[in-house]
Amino acid sequence: MSTEKCFANGSATPGPVPKGHIRLYSMRFCPFAQRTRLVLNAKGITYDTVNIHLKDKPDWFLEKNPLGLVPTLETPAGEVIYESPITCEYLDEVYPEKKLLPSSPFAKAQQKMMLEHFSKVIPYFYKIPTGRKNGEDVSGLEADLKEKFAKLNACLVNKKTKFFGGDSITMIDYMMWPWFERAEAYQFKQFLDGTPELKKWTELMLQDSAVKAIMFSPDAHKAFFKTFLDGNPDFDYGL
């Protein structure tokens, strides 16, 4: 796991991407960038990491990715790829060892459709803690999130598989995992009690070598998330 401090505006431009490597522009606590880190680690790809200060982005980074978002990949040839699903699919195609996406077009489409469904879940991980902090009534949002967890649980029940793509980890599992790693920090862990198959899935994911290689403890997530909610995120927390 990279422990490099983030690059802010005014920082020197990193040198060229070494031959035989790929570079990941990231932020240590970003769940979207974690998707790409999981795929890089699962596939055993040699990469280096440049962490970006997302509140004070370097001009040189904005030249590479005008959206200023992480994850962003850069190849030794200067090719730049961004948006987490796109970076992950790119890595799976360019590094064909240990394929994470299914070869069947229909099975691949199923994973992409499931990802679209999961994208509707993600906002709740931010709306609910923000609402709690502001003293708002978030019971309706919590009920909605529990319902969405129940649907994910039903998906596993109907499939009769350990993971969302089968009995081994595939791309969709890595795409969903970062938010569940943060469930305790966001005070959502108790919501999993009513979804036994989903809870079992989280326990199996915690045993995965790629997950273990880059994960943070619940306390670290909690500490960073507090700075995020306070409006002054400490991107270098713990360094």
TrEMBL record:
User: Domain of life, per the record?
Assistant: Eukaryota
Listed under GO biological process in this entry are:
glutathione metabolic process
Q: Which GO terms describe its molecular function?
A: glutathione dehydrogenase (ascorbate) activity; glutathione transferase activity; methylarsonate reductase activity
Q: Which Pfam family, an example, fits this chain?
A: GST_N_3
Per the database record, which ranges form the GST N-terminal domain? 20-99
CDD domains per the UniProt record, alphabetical: GST_C_Omega (cd03184), GST_N_Omega (cd03055)
What GO cellular component is one of the record's annotations? cytoplasm
| Catalytic reactions on record | methylarsonate + 2 glutathione + H(+) = methylarsonous acid + glutathione disulfide + H2O; L-dehydroascorbate + 2 glutathione = glutathione disulfide + L-ascorbate; RX + glutathione = an S-substituted glutathione + a halide anion + H(+)
The alphabetized UniProt keywords are:
Oxidoreductase, Transferase
Task: Identify the EC number(s).
Answer: 1.20.4.2, 1.8.5.1, 2.5.1.18
Q: Where is the GST C-terminal domain?
A: 104-229
Summarize the protein's role: Exhibits glutathione-dependent thiol transferase activity. Has high dehydroascorbate reductase activity and may contribute to the recycling of ascorbic acid. Participates in the biotransformation of inorganic arsenic and reduces monomethylarsonic acid (MMA).
Q: Which family does it belong to?
A: Belongs to the GST superfamily. Omega family.
Name of the molecule in the record: Glutathione S-transferase omega
